[in-house]
Amino acid sequence: MSQLRLLPSRLGAQASRLLAPHDIQMFSRRSRSSGPPAPFPSSKRGGSSSYMEEMYFAWLENPQSVHKSWDSFFRKASEEAACDPAQSRFPESRPSVSSRTKTSKLVEDHLAVQSLIRAYQIRGHHVAQLDPLGILDADLDSFVPSDLITTIDKLAFYDLREADLDKEFQLPTTTFIGGSEHTLSLREIIRRLESTYCQHIGLEFMFINDVEQCQWIRQKFETPGVMQFSSEEKRTLLARLVRSMRFEDFLARKWSSEKRFGLEGCEVMIPALKTIIDKSSEMGIENVILGMPHRGRLNVLANVIRKDLEQIFCQFDPKLEAADEGSGDVKYHLGMYHERINRVTNRNITLSLVANPSHLEAVDPVVQGKTKAEQFYRGDAQGKKVMSILVHGDAAFAGQGVVYETFHLSDLPSYTTNGTVHVVVNNQIGFTTDPRMARSSPYPTDVARVVNAPIFHVNADDPEAVIYVCSVAAEWRNTFNKDVVVDLVCYRRRGHNEMDEPMFTQPLMYKQIHRQVPVLKKYADKLIAEGTVTLQEFEEEIAKYDRICEEAYGRSKDKKILHIKHWLDSPWPGFFNVDGEPKSMTCPATGIPEDVLTHIGEVASSVPLKDFKIHTGLSRILRGRADMIKNRTVDWALAEYMAFGSLLKEGIHVRLSGQDVERGTFSHRHHVLHDQEVDRRTCVPMNHLWPDQAPYTVCNSSLSEYGVLGFELGYAMASPNALVLWEAQFGDFHNTAQCIIDQFISTGQAKWVRHNGIVLLLPHGMEGMGPEHSSARPERFLQMSNDDSDAYPVFTEDFEVSQLYDCNWIVVNCSTPANYFHVLRRQVLLPFRKPLIIFTPKSLLRHPEAKSSFDQMVSGKCPSVLGRWLMGGLVAHGPLLSGLFRPHLRPCLCNSSWLIPHWGRVGSLAWWPPDMVWLGSLGLRSRARAGRWVLPQLQSRAHLAVLGELRCGRPGGGLISTAGHGVSFSYSFSVLSLMNQIDTTGPGDPVLLPEAFSLLYPGVEGQIKHLKDQVLELRCDPGEDQGGADVGP
Ligand SMILES: Cc1ncc(C[n+]2csc(CCOP(=O)(O)OP(=O)(O)O)c2C)c(N)n1
Predict the structure, then answer these.
(1) pTM
(2) Is the CB of 425 under 6 A from ligand 1?
(3) pLDDT, tens digit (0-9, with 9 covering 90-100), for 360-389
(4) Which atom of ligand 1 lies closest to the CA of 496?
(5) Does residue 620 sit in helix, strand or coil?
(6) Fewer CB near the last or first residue (10 Å), C or N of the chain?
(7) Test site for ligand 1: of 431, 432, 489, most ligand atoms within 8 A of the Cβ
(8) Cross-strand pairs, 392
(9) Dist CA 636 CA 852 (whole Å)
(10) In angstroms, rounded to a whole number, what is the distance separating the alpha carbons of residues 488 and 855?
């Protein structure tokens, strides 16, 4: 690792000789040198000169014969020459050799100055003074670009000399450094470029390929005098810094040995965020959704969102009892929602900070999804009312791939939030890791370049520069509706948390940090020196805020109970009762009238737009759908259509997102029709069902799981009155989004008392398609189900619904299209929201047996294993079939009571009804070998006999299945023979509850043993097919 380097003062001797005193100061700040300046290649110079001469003489003969940029350049140069006879070197006719040389020199010098200006615009940030500690280059490189004039001798790079410094040069239209002046001396040009690009702000924007956007940025930063602050603005800034700093000091005084992940070293972030919010509010924004990691989060809650201080302080009291169910979470992960008046603009503003897990950056797509949904519900298609702000750490921003995935959603029509302001707390360290070991890119922000987002680096010890940059960032977002990054280059005053010793690993850096004067003191001294505030006013401001903290602290001690509900980031007004509980524990019937089914079916089999030519293959599919509707049946795709369509009719917005979902990976869905003759003309029949229906969004996503699932989770967070579904291309791909599943979906309610009704559609099935794709890994979802699998529920009147309420998510494996229809509808009709994981079929999408009649959809409910069994008084002494098995085995079954086609409650597996045999396509047995958990645990309880899928997969291979189809069928039939030996007592013996369970349970041991013995005997081998050969990508 290279050593940290303290920059010596490297004032170039020549510079001090040549430049005015203010210039000397400017040069001295960035006098890094990379050795002698490289000479300008003479061949190149000669070449460009003669080319220019050619242009010039051609222009003299006919101005229209050259490009208009040359025309304008020569015109200006001639005008200038006309005004100044000394410069008048433009010949009227073909010139003499000496005058041609002079002309060339003039033109060349002008071009050189243009290049010089451009060099500063492109590379000025490399030498900007960004690090408040003055020890590390923000771009991790001490190299000084040779085309920046850091010493006088570098003028030679442009073939300019010291004598040229006082010559006047015409300014090109691509710079605004002149203000109202069109010419400036070279000396002044360099000085102004220095002051714009090489001081405390480093601008990266010249990679943007939109000229208008580049011009906009140049104007904002180059125009002389742009960074002027009124004394009122300075006082506000000081007051905000006081709050930020004193809040940290207060926590440190009261809870010196508690982890706080303080903001010390980047206190300026509070005024920075407030500026972005003020400026955005001024431009019409009414709702800001924030996501951020641990660092400075408490400060943001207190001073940006304005959460009551006592509620923050009571989080430090370990004795307080939580009033809500669930585990809760540490204080620096909790979310918050607050509607208030923005005092600067006097307008209403809603601020929410989305709760997040430890997993850095995981919240980014979630914030984006929530923002998109809020924009959608407000009809804010341009993002003029709702916006997002994401705060990042430098190490996480560079290192976490989800940042990249989230950026790639930023400009997609169905995912854009019309621009996000990103703020990076670049404290130049990640836990204990030096940035030179943590990233390969020059800046931590380089990931943002992929979407052409401008990046404004700024020295966080210069609060006015920070505020200016933030206000431009907010304006940029409002003007162009695109992302922008503010990189606050700062330091971390303490260790990673307050208990850590940073000198172990960063000794030199921390020696400097210990010497560092806090930004508040620096800024206060400046304002006092210039007379903007008095010392007394400053001290009063501090005392005032300290008093506020002390008073809140006093009140916090009176608190007896901790309400996690007070930390909700997404309240759903009216959905729950006043105590935040579901209004009932019942679920309406999920069936719908036949005429609605018929109408949806007809639209699903038609092309609602006129003169719209669809593919002939699709016409055939639509005809097939029409036939099914005539026969009053549905397949899987139609059942989904029926569920979505009927919810849309009821005013429920439906959004389906994922890779290739519009057509469907298995080409069964076809929700977007494409005109075969007109490019990009499409039709979504689902949006042509009823004139007053809710909108349906179906969108192919980018090829991301982590980012897109996070996004949809955030979307589902915004409102309970929507059905939001994410479909994996194959179910196993969900593991790329595992962080969202583990940290948000399975545990979100327990940690943050937050409901979420996201639906995951995970294509699953053991019918080949390669060893990976045959399984969506249901064992993993089961493993993460509920906390205590030994807890037996209390059987109450409302058990059928309350069992769903009590679980962390609902996992289902539907056997029939009708089940799928009911379970989707139930998801919205339930009086609460739970994530729903559906293992969806592949081969069943076309299996002739996988059909349901309208009769199964016009009435009734979503069947639920235990609900049906217990509440319905139906005892199914016999095999249950779920998923794939049902249609495969159905023709062979005669006496079984396979009535219960999906799981209503995953936790139920842990206390599975003892006399039930589950024959599912979930493959728990093989999964048990892969996951080594589920089956042993279940069997040890002796409640369960899992007979399905006796052997599939390679022995010991860790794979789920083999590649071929034959295997699954062979073991299906083995299962069938096993089933015929099971002693079933037949369906439908009614037993009343709760007695049923207790009556049956004592006698179960023997029965289970009997079943297990049979399983062992009948275990079938998949034959020769021992390989896990893949079938393709
Ligand atoms: C995905 C993930 N990996 C690892 C960690 C452990 N961790 C917590 S903070 C941290 C360093 C973060 O550095 P940076 O992003 O620069 O933020 P800072 O703490 O410096 O503000 C690490 C590695 C984590 N929280 N999340």
Answers:
(1) 0.83
(2) yes
(3) 999 999 999 999 999 999 999 999 999 999
(4) 19
(5) helix
(6) C
(7) 431
(8) 424
(9) 9
(10) 63
